[in-house]
Design goal:
- This protein is mainly alpha-helical and 270 residues long.
- It folds into 3 domains: 29 residues; 107 residues, Orthogonal Bundle (Cytochrome Bc1 Complex, Chain D, domain 2); 88 residues, Orthogonal Bundle (Cytochrome Bc1 Complex, Chain D, domain 2).
- The chain contains 12 helices and 2 strands.
- Strands 1-2 form a two-stranded antiparallel sheet.
- A hairpin with a 4-residue loop joins strand 1 and strand 2.
């Protein structure tokens, strides 16, 4: 073996040994207490559709899935926007760092700063309907509400309540100064193909991001920082990762400047 070849072989062997050593070190959880183990971020796999039970329980889960994925169609009396739950909680509520539904039942009740009091999972669903859906509250104990709660519960079955999942919420972006003028160019180049030159979208596949069919100005996603975090990690869906944090802040600021419905103050307690 030549000297260059020998050197490469030695370096490869050293790299392999180090990788194995540090790999074992990273995976060695023996020093953790049981409580610490339970709070490690956990991998999660969506349940199979065949695991939906038969009978009334399964019918409710399936209805919840339909409402979640095509909200204006299956909850038409409570939606003003042409947006579905899955527009923000992507892939039917399972996409990491797109505010997934996984494990939510175990996190409620919780204090909600916007509401100023402790809320239930049902209350949180109502928030989505009056803000993101620009609609009206569901019947609190009605068929649609039960279906959504049952669907979210079914999604969360692979692991017990309270487990911390990888991908909870949204990514955390460092603060950037947004430039809506530059954001207009980013939108035209990267977003208009799906969401339309005038933000009108192509429902149900691509939701409106401004205009009368979009979320109202009381929705959480209307905030620049939250929208930037969602956009940077999840958009464009077919080219994820091409937008920098600055791009995301800029396009979020541009979208926020566009007209949209006003939040109905009658629902301010949500």
């Amino acid at each position: 073996m030549t000297r260059p070849g020998l050197a490469i072989a030695i370096l490869t062997a050293v790299f392999y040994v180090c990788a194995v050593f540090f790999g074992f070190r990273v995976k060695d959880l023996s020093g953790l207490t049981e409580s610490e183990r339970q709070h490690l971020p956990a991998e999660w796999h969506a349940p199979l559709s065949v695991s939906i039970p038969q009978g009334h329980a399964g019918d409710s889960i399936r209805l919840g899935q339909l409402i979640f994925n095509e909200t204006p169609l299956y909850a038409a009396n409570h939606t003003g926007a042409r947006i579905s739950c899955t527009s923000c909680h992507a892939e039917g509520g399972i996409q990491p760092y797109a505010s997934p539904m996984v494990g939510l039942p175990g996190l409620f009740p919780m204090f909600n700063p916007r509401a100023g009091h402790v809320i239930s999972l049902k209350d949180r669903i109502q928030e989505c309907f009056v803000r993101s859906e620009n609609g009206s509250p569901l019947d609190y104990d009605g068929l649609e509400m039960k279906a959504l709660v049952d669907y979210i519960g079914w999604l969360s079955t692979p692991s017990p309540n309270g487990v911390v999942y990888k991908g909870r919420g949204l990514i955390t972006l460092p603060p950037f100064k947004p430039d809506p003028v530059r954001g207009a160019a980013v939108y035209a180049a990267q977003c208009a193909g799906c969401h339309g030159a005038n933000g009108e979208g192509v429902p149900p596949m691509f939701p409106a991001v401004w205009g009368p069919s979009s979320f109202n100005d009381g929705a959480g996603i209307d905030g620049v920082q939250k929208m930037a975090a969602f956009v940077q990690h999840n958009m464009p869906q077919n080219r994820k990762g091409i937008l920098s944090p600055q791009d995301a802040y800029d396009v979020a600021a541009f979208i926020r400047e566009q007209p949209r419905p006003a939040f109905n103050k009658a629902y301010a307690h949500y």
